[in-house]
Amino acid sequence: MMTLSLNQTGVTEFVLEGFSEHPGLRLFLAGCFLSIYMMALMGNIVIIALVTSSTGLQSPMYFFLCNLATMDIVCTSSVIPKALVGLVSEENTISFKGCMTQLFFLACSASSELLLLTVMAYDRYVAICFPLHYSTRMYPQMCGALAMGVWSIGSLNACVHTGLMARLSFCGPKVITHFFCEIPPLLLLSCSPTYVNSIMTLVADAFFVAINFMLTLLSYSCIIASILRMRSPEGKKKAFSTCSSHLIVVSVYYSSVFCAYVSPASSYSPERSKATSVLYSVLSPTLNPLIYTLRNKDVKLALGRILASFSH
User: Fold this and answer.
1) Residues 121-161: tens digit of each pLDDT
2) pLDDT 10s digits, 275-299
3) What pTM was estimated for this model as a whole?
4) 89-110: b or e for each residue (b if 16 or more CB lie within 10 Å)?
5) Is the pLDDT of residue 1 over 50?
């Protein structure tokens, strides 16, 4: 099937522009990207290891955090290694198949994360607004079904966009004005009609960004209203602490996604897209382990137990 796609196009590889317009910053950026990637990788692997090995971290919240950590590893690993190659080499080329593969994994992880943030908001909504019914609503089979649904829908979305992109013809130029393969700059390079791609991008924006944003907003509106009705100051403080962590990540992630994707291809700005893409593909996966879990007492205790076992 990919052979057919390659026969339809005069381009067998693309050149990723990356940050070539700032040659003096290449080594500095390479150091930053490498450091952030290692932090993201280590932080998210630690979360997965803690959740899967600690009996005290078996609640739905930590199960979803484990899924989030996996998505963040997929997201950063599909983008940063290739970006690092571009920063330390003269020209950063990527094959047509490689570009479609990168597009698939990035679209899958990004759309799945938007869905998962909505599921996590619903989990907090049930925990705070209906604490007595939490165990009956968020039982293990339900959590497993929600996680499977998130991954399945994200993968289906990635398949649709990658399939639609692979059927387009690319006759040249072949320079992608980005540091990874992304839908808007690729559509600008196509020499065949991109009407269907643009329509499906708008549909995806409406579903994954707008609808999920509204559902997350609705969940937190109910949560905040419920917290304000609490009489216990300690209860309010604990609930607000949980919500604030999630809200910070949701705000950063949605802000970057809105800037990067919710705009027509004709108004695409390479510089703006690179900056916003760094937020959701590089910084957000690095900050998530810190914001969501390392401030949490249960996670700190679990981490302390594992470190203590190694010291003995």
Assistant:
1) 999 899 888 988 999 999 999 999 999 999 999 999 999 99
2) 778 878 888 888 888 887 666 777 7
3) 0.88
4) eeebebebeebbbbbbbbbbbb
5) no
Structure tokens at 43: 């932080």
Structure tokens at 89: 């080499």
Nearest residue to 113 via CA among 220, 194, 213: 213
Pairing of strands 175-176, 13-16: parallel
CA dist., res. 47 & res. 65, Å (int): 8
Concatenate the DSSP letters of all residues of the chain into one string.
-HHHHHHT-S-SEEEE-TTTT-GGGHHHHHHHHHHHHHHHHHHHHHHHHHHHH-GGG-SHHHHHHHHHHHHHHHHHHHHHHHHHHHHHSS--EEEHHHHHHHHHHHHHHHHHHHHHHHHHHHHHHHHHH-GGGHHHHS-HHHHHHHHHHHHHHHHHHHHHHHHHHHTS---S--EESSSS--HHHHHHH-SS--HHHHHHHHHHIIIIIIIHHHHHHHHHHHHHHHHHT---HHHHHHHHHHHHHHHHHHHHHHHHHHHHHSS-GGG--HHHHHHHHHIIIIIHHHHHIIIIIIT-HHHHHHHHHHHHHHH-
For residues 164 and 175, give the distance between their C-alpha atoms in angstroms, rounded to a whole number: 20
Give 302: exposed, middle or buried? Use CB within 10 Å, 0-12, 13-18, 19+. buried
pLDDT confidence of 266, banded at 50, 70, 90?
A: low
